[in-house]
Amino acid sequence: MKARIIMLLLVNLSCTLFAQKNDTELLSINNQLSEMSPTGREIQEQSGLKIVCERIEEDGFASAYESYSFSIENNTDHSISEPQWTYTLPLKGGGEFIIATSPNDIFTIPIVESKDLYDIDADHCISGRIVFRGIIDGEESVASYNIMLDLKPHIISYSEIIKTVNETNTAYSIDFTVRYVGSDFLRVGVREEYSPSLIMQTIEEPLVAHVHRSSINAFNYAWVWLHVYNEYGEDEITITLKNLIGDSDITGVQTIHSDFVNASVIKIYTKEGKYMMQITDWDNLKELNQEIYILQLCNKEGIPFKTIKYLKGQ
């Protein structure tokens, strides 16, 4: 017991106090031990309160590399006063580390930093706990939420795929973006129907990778393999590309990102940022030379709402 207390005091002295703009505070070590509850979306302490997070599934699993926001669902007949949130992670040597606290209605937890400090289970997860306390009808009510933070990388999503067909309508290129966390690079492979080879590419663009692959046979199916990995594990997605046979007009861009549809004006810049022109119809992009461009998408008032990189295919 003395050794544990000394260890906790030493860690306490090495930690500092931080504060975020949303009034969530990142705090120093909590040397009071508490028992972790079983894994699950939320543990309700008979208070009529429920902690909810729209981005986390019922099993309570989430990514250690993303930030999440929580709110309280009040199922009582009374309002809540003096709200207080606490977020803790378990230390390797025992005890819990208070990561953040907040008196706000919305509680946002940060990504996991210094992963080696915490207890990591056999599935490469850290079991975190969020506790909400508040006064209801003059008495304190408590609700807790247990979250399993996965240290393995995760492919979050990929955008709609833009296909650009060559002049002979025999091959096409693809352009899209991939959002991922937990790794500094994305591996991309393409395999075509009737071909045994998998042509790989490494894209060193953390968080958001811009994928461009060319010379894909228009008459066959193809498969795009997305892969991320780190010391804790890996994640992968396979995308099927149908052949383009049967399309009434397969020339030019086949699949256009939904943001283009919402744009009234598209301003075109060179990759160096020099303004070129503006268009009102995305079909005009087919007239560009084979090059990388910066597109600024604007609404009907001419106000930009998104800037993207556009790669004109081979």
Rg value: 25 Å
CATH superfamily of the largest domain: Immunoglobulins
What would CATH call the class of the largest domain?
Mainly Beta
CATH topology of the largest domain: Immunoglobulin-like
Q: What is the CA-CA span between the terminal residues?
A: 68 Å
For the sheet with most strands, the description reads: 7 strands, mixed
* Helix/strand order: HEEEEEEEEEEEEEEEEEEEEEHEEEE
Shape summary: elongated
Number of domains: 3
Give the count of helical stretches: 2
Mean pLDDT: 80
Which range best describes the helical content: under 10%, 10-25%, 25-40%, 40-55%, 55-70% or over 70%? Answer: under 10%
Strand content: over 45%
Describe this structure in words.
By secondary structure, the protein is mainly beta. The chain starts with a helix and ends with a strand. The longest helix is centred in the first third of the chain and has 12 residues, at 2-13. The protein has helices at 2-13, 258-262; strands at residues 18-19, 25-26, 29-30, 43-44, 49-52, 61-63, 68-74, 80-90, 96-102, 107-109, 125-136, 139-150, 154-158, 162-165, 171-181, 186-192, 199-203, 208-217, 222-230, 233-241, 252-253, 265-270, 275-279, 292-298, 304-311. 5% of the residues lie in helices and 49% in strands. Residues 1-19 form the signal peptide. Keywords: Signal.
